[in-house]
Amino acid sequence: MKKQIFIVIQSIIFVSACSSPGERELASGGYEYLDVKETKEELNVPKDLAEPNLSGIYALPTLKNENKSELMGEEITISSPRLVLPLVAGTHVEEGSQTAQINFDQINDSKPLNTTIWDKVLSYLEKNDIGVDSFDRENNILITDWVISQTETSSSWYEFSDKYVEHAKKFKLALDIAPHGRTASLTNEVVEYINDSGESNMASLNPINKRNNEVNFLNYIIAEYDFDVRLAQTQRINMIREGFKSSLGFNADGDSAYMIDAKYNNAWPRLLLVLRKMNFDVIDLDQSSGIMFVVYNGEDEGFFTRLFGTDALPLEQDTYRIFVSRAGAKTSVTLKDDESVTLDLDTVTGIFPTFKELMASDNLDI
């Protein structure tokens, strides 16, 4: 019994060891068809029989010399083609595209789109110790220094150590910006290649491997971009939850206002939480123009609100308008009535203690 188990284990090891990562990408079986010569024998019809009508519907087309592919036999891989992954919000790929390319749509106006993309590309190169051979920012073309990669090779079944060969590549990243500057496409291309023999020979890199390398490298950059976006979003959410300091001041028009120590895009969602806690209902808003139409409902009469809530505001139950504006690194909030007249200083000052406390509260509960 033990002998049979040992034989089975040996067989499993032998079969599994005979298939290297490279071999698993090749079609199984032999390649005898490569040695078959093309025959052009015509149909031999006896003299006493009429020749059949030949339609030629199944005839193979004649290829021009420049269209003949050298990818035959072991040069053809059966693995799935590499696909560009549009992970970042606002990115997409063109269906059927044969190049390693991704398209960007601008969804954040804090920086120009081309600046954002190049910052992410340079960040990825720096984090992975990849040098820059040349960078023409005016023409939006960057060529990397040598990128070293390792590929596992076939080894004997009885060898328990893996063997690897090194390849070196230089990539050309080109950014095409639309005239309006809000869309762009980033393309990646291998421009130099050193094979495992240390020879600089682009011809030894077949089209399939070339595209796989181009797509893989572009996907690494996209993944880094996506990680940075998600990290920034998480940090922004945490910052908004922690709250911001505020003070009394004046807006750009000289009206009394609350000055929040936060940038506009961070102060806006936090203000919505604070207004809800202060018992305002937002009935309409436009973040691009910085205006909110709100209704003040007065003091909430619920038991838990009276027990734990804030004091009533010195404000009539009515409809109001709130104007939010950028003020450098800060954000101004101006309270006005339904006729867009700024509230008097006593009312603004009387509301401020409640506003200040809620704006700075950590993990504001609504």
What key attributes describe this structure?
366 residues, alpha+beta, Alpha-D-Glucose-1,6-Bisphosphate, Chain A, domain 4, TATA-Binding Protein, 2 domains, seven-stranded antiparallel beta sheet, six-stranded antiparallel beta sheet, 6 helices, elongated
Kindly describe this structure.
- It is a single chain.
- This protein has 366 residues and is of the alpha+beta class.
- The chain has two domains: 80-236, Alpha-D-Glucose-1,6-Bisphosphate, Chain A, domain 4 (2-Layer Sandwich), CATH 3.30.530.50; 243-360, 2-Layer Sandwich (TATA-Binding Protein).
- It contains six helices and 13 strands.
- The strands form two sheets. Strands 1, 2, 3, 4, 5, 6 and 7 form a seven-stranded antiparallel beta sheet that branches.
- Strand 6 (163-177) and strand 7 form a beta hairpin.
- The radius of gyration is 34 Å and the shape is elongated.
- The model is unreliable at 5-17 (pLDDT under 50).
